[in-house]
Amino acid sequence: MSRGKVLVVLSSTSSITLANGKVIQTGFFLSELMKPLQKIMDAGISPVFANPLGNLPAMDPNSDSSLWYSFKRSEYIKHKDLLRQWETDGLFQPRKLSDITENELFGFNGLFLPGGHAPMNDLPYDKDLGKILLHFHQFNKPIGAICHGPAGLMAPLASQPELAWPFAGYEMSCYSNNEEKMMETMWRGQMPWKLETQLASLGGRMKENWPMLPKVTVDRELITAQGPTSAGQFGDRFVQALLAGPVISKVGVMG
Questions:
Q1: For residue range 83-110, what is the model confidence (pLDDT) as tens digits?
Q2: Residue 126: is it exposed, middle or buried by C-beta count within 10 angstroms (0-12/13-18/19+)?
Q3: Closest by CA position to 52, among listed 146, 141, 151, 144
Q4: Distance (Å, rounded) from C-alpha 31 to C-alpha 26?
Q5: Shortest CA distance to 220 belongs to which of 255, 196, 247, 243?
Q6: 3-class DSSP state for residue 23?
Q7: Any residues with CB less than 8 A from the CB of 133 and at least 6 apart, and which?
């Protein structure tokens, strides 16, 4: 028996260009998508996938490893097998964001923005995502975002720039500046902008843990998490919010 639907919004891009012009292959981060999604589906909630162009989402090649599953190879293989099942539908045949109507949105329990660097390319500037987020915000329905997924939370400013950012004053977590610096060292190039800095400049009250340690932050309808080590805790908390329904919850921080 279905217990509802969650809209899963991914990027339409597969690379990110550093400040020095170097191009890095990216996409969705496997464990940050699949660990929460497995918990969502186990709770009887069905995912509906969408992105700006309705095109094939790319997977971040750095995420294709059992390392991000604490070397639990059985869980890693299970999620890779599920990806293969979606080759003819689901994840690999996403809806186009602009095709999702306001009436359709009333049928969703919540919205999920997975991580990977790719969301920084297009989701903050997508007007259709902005309108969708405003719907979930207005009706206090759970919005979950992990790692670089919170970049999408900036989209309401693209759809209605005259309005104040709806998430100003919210406590939230994302991939931290300290973690981003570690990636810049590995890539030998700087990111064009840093998500934690940008969200803070818009009024986000940023909460972070030490690099690569879990952090899940809950403020009203918004559930956010820092990075891949947070994926399990994030999934649990997001599912709890989805099953509870559209209610304003108290602020809470885990990890």
A1: 888 877 788 899 999 999 999 999 999 9
A2: buried
A3: 151
A4: 14
A5: 247
A6: strand
A7: 111, 143, 152, 153, 155, 156, 166
